[in-house]
């Protein structure tokens, strides 16, 4: 079957190269590209692709937040992470927000092709070194040593969540972190998306359950 794909990455040269690679395969059609998480969500909503090839680290809304929003809004669209990050925290953070596969950017063209087709069929796909993390996780009884609460959040997002859990409003958070109110609103939205929290109150409850903030 022909698989429709959206490529998401903030490096135009990489996007052009990956598009050229995928265009070599008759059973894959690149329908759009995006340069950041917000654009990824908009493009995916418009085209409803079979697979989104998602980078993790991008300015603004990152790949984790975009993945969470796409998987929630478009259950039929699969997300294959294609990144340079091979650490266990990044792998499990991506899986927690709904990624269906995880490859490193060093993968060759045939590996990417096979992964796209496999993910489109509903299979989970992991590159060799990524698979080692997953196997170690289950071998250890399902615990990931060294991981902290909410590893899917960036450091700034964790700071915002901590202050939310302390009961601060957006204006107070903006003053405390020396950020603009708009930036705080965006970070709060990203936190809610990554935690799959429907409301601020739900995110605060999750944070306090994990030991963040001061419920008093």
UniProtKB/TrEMBL annotation:
Signal peptide region: none
Alphabetically sorted, this entry's keywords are: DNA-binding, Phosphoprotein, Transcription, Transcription regulation
The processes (GO biological process) annotated in the record are: phosphorelay signal transduction system; regulation of DNA-templated transcription
GO MF entry, a single one: DNA binding
Which positions bear 4-aspartylphosphate? Answer: 55
Q: Where is the Response regulatory domain?
A: 4-120
Which positions fall inside the HTH luxR-type domain? 146-211
Per the record, a Pfam family?
GerE
The protein's name in its UniProt record: Response regulator transcription factor
